[in-house]
Amino acid sequence: MASSLLSSPKPCCSSANHTSSPLRPRACAPALSPFRVAAPRFSHGLAAAVAAAKPSVSCRRHRAFARPVRASMAPRRPEYVPNRIDDPNYVRIFDTTLRDGEQSPGATMTSAEKLVVARQLARLGVDIIEAGFPASSPDDLDAVRSIAIEVGNTPVGDDGHVPVICGLSRCNKRDIDAAWEAVRHARRPRIHTFIATSEIHMQHKLRKTPEQVVAIAREMVAYARSLGCPDVEFSPEDAGRSNREFLYHILEEVIKAGATTLNIPDTVGYTLPYEFGKLIADIKANTPGIENAIISTHCQNDLGLATANTLAGAHAGARQLEVTINGIGERAGNASLEEVVMAIKCRRELLGGLYTGINTQHITMSSKMVQEHSGLHVQPHKAIVGANAFAHESGIHQDGMLKYKGTYEIISPDDIGLTRANEFGIVLGKLSGRHAVRSKLVELGYEITDKEFEDFFKRYKEVAEKKKRVTDEDIEALLSDEIFQPKVFWSLADVQATCGTLGLSTATVKLIAPDGAEKIACAVGTGPVDAAYKAVDEIIQHVASTINMSHKNRRFCT
C-alpha cells in the first residue's frame, strides 16, 4: 500500500485561481523603545512613529503554460445505511471533537458550548458527531441528549443532511444504558463501545484473558443492539499493538453480534503509515464477515503521524475516519479534520477517487469556534488553519506569488472560508523584497519614482529589522516621513516607569526635539504604558495613537 501511495505517477487535482480572501494577518508591533514621534502637523508620521467560501476545493498543480482549472464537483453524499456505503469511494467523517477532543487538558466545554459546536459540525457536514461520554457524568449525558434532540433531528445543507449522533461507552451495561438514553432521541443514533485488546492492556489494565475479552465484547455489542439501537460501533482499544489473529477473531465475533462499524484505533500513536495501512488491509482481507461492516480509523498523534496514518488507512480500505477539529485530543491529540479532509480533496486522484461530504468553506469558522470554546489555540504554522498557513514573507516566495499564486499555494484559502488582508497573502517583514514592497505601495494607492522608492526602501529595511511585521500604517508613515513631508521628528532619549498594586503608575519621558533640545515630562496613567504615552502627549502637545503593540521577552512576564 505504502509503495503505491508514494510512487503513483498520477498528479493531484488542479485548481481555480485564488481570489482575495478572511483573516487579516495579525501584525506584531515594536516595543515602546525606541520610537519616533513626528511633528504634530504630520498625522501619518505620528501614528506609525509611536507604534515604530465554496463547497468544492481548489488545489494547485504546477503545469507549465497551463491555467489552473476548478476540480470537478464530488458526487453527492450517499444515503446513510449503518453498515454499508453504496459508493465505495465515499469516506464518512466521524468527528470526535466533543468527546476525545474534550479530553485535552483544560479543554472542557460547558453543555451550552458543546451544543453550539455541534451545530457548527452539522453545518460543516460531518457524517457522525461523537457528542460525548454519557456515563462519565450527568452533565455530559444531558449535553449529549440535548445535541441528539436538536442537532440530531435538524436537516442542514442543500441535501438536508442529518448527522448521526454517537455516544461512547465502555463494554458494560451501565455505560451502554447511559449512551442509549442520551442518543436515542436522534433520528440516527449510534452507540460506540470499546474494550482493550492488546496484550499489555488485557494483562495490566483489564486483568482478563483474551477469551474473557472476546466474550464481553460479543455480549455487550448484542446488548446494545437489543436496546433498539440500529447502529453500533465497536473499537478494540490499542489495536495498533494487538495480535493480528486475535483482532481478526474478536472483530468476527462482534460482527456476528451486530456491530455495524469496526473502528481500529492506534490508541497510543505508535504505528507508522505503512504499518497502519497494512493493518487495515489485513483486517479487510482476513476478517470473516467484514463485508457486513464499515472499517474505521482512529489515530492518535503521539509521533506526529495521525494524519498520515489516517490517510494510509483510507487508502487501504477504511471508509470512516475519526478526526477532531484542530487535531485536539488526549496527549498529543488526534488526526486533524481539516488536514485529512483537505488532503483527500487535493490528492483525490492519487487516493483512488476518495471524497467526503464536508463543506470545506466552514473549516475556518469551525476551527475558530473550537479554539474559542476549548481555550486551545493553534500554533501559527498549523497546517490549513494556522495564522501563517497562507502568509508569505520571504522575498523569493512573494515574487512568485505576485507572478502566479500557484507557485507557492496548493490550496486556495477561499475554499476553507478564509479571507486575508490582501489577494496574495503577502506579509511584509525584513525578508520582503522590492517587488513585494512596491506592490504594497501600489495597493495602497501610492505612485512614486524609482529614486523615491530606493530612498523609501532603505528606510523600510531599517524599520523592518526592528519589527516582526510591517503594517499598512507603517508604510504610510514612512512615505509621509521620507517622501511627502520634511524629516521633522522627535526621538526617545529615555523613559522610566513605575507601577504597583497599591501605588499609581507613573512614567517620566525624555524626548529629543527636532532642534536637538531635550524635553522632559512626567505623567500618571492606568498603567506604565498609558503613563508613558501621556507624558509624550504632554511634550509634543498632540495626542499620539498606538497602532498595535507586542510584548518582548515574554519569558520574564508573569
UniProtKB/TrEMBL annotation:
Residues 1-16 have a biased composition (Low complexity). Residues 91-364 form the Pyruvate carboxyltransferase domain. SUPFAM superfamilies: Aldolase. This is 2-isopropylmalate synthase. GO terms for biological process: L-leucine biosynthetic process. Its EC number is 2.3.3.13. GO terms for molecular function: 2-isopropylmalate synthase activity; metal ion binding. One of its GO terms (cellular component) is chloroplast. The lineage of its organism: Eukaryota, Viridiplantae, Streptophyta, Embryophyta, Tracheophyta. It comes from Oryza meyeriana var. granulata. Pfam families: HCS_D2 (PF22617), HMGL-like (PF00682), LeuA_dimer (PF08502). Pathway: Amino-acid biosynthesis; L-leucine biosynthesis; L-leucine from 3-methyl-2-oxobutanoate: step 1/4. Belongs to the alpha-IPM synthase/homocitrate synthase family. LeuA type 1 subfamily. CDD domains: DRE_TIM_IPMS. Keywords: Amino-acid biosynthesis, Branched-chain amino acid biosynthesis, Leucine biosynthesis, Metal-binding, Transferase. PROSITE patterns: AIPM_HOMOCIT_SYNTH_1, PYR_CT. Residues 1-24 are annotated as: Disordered.
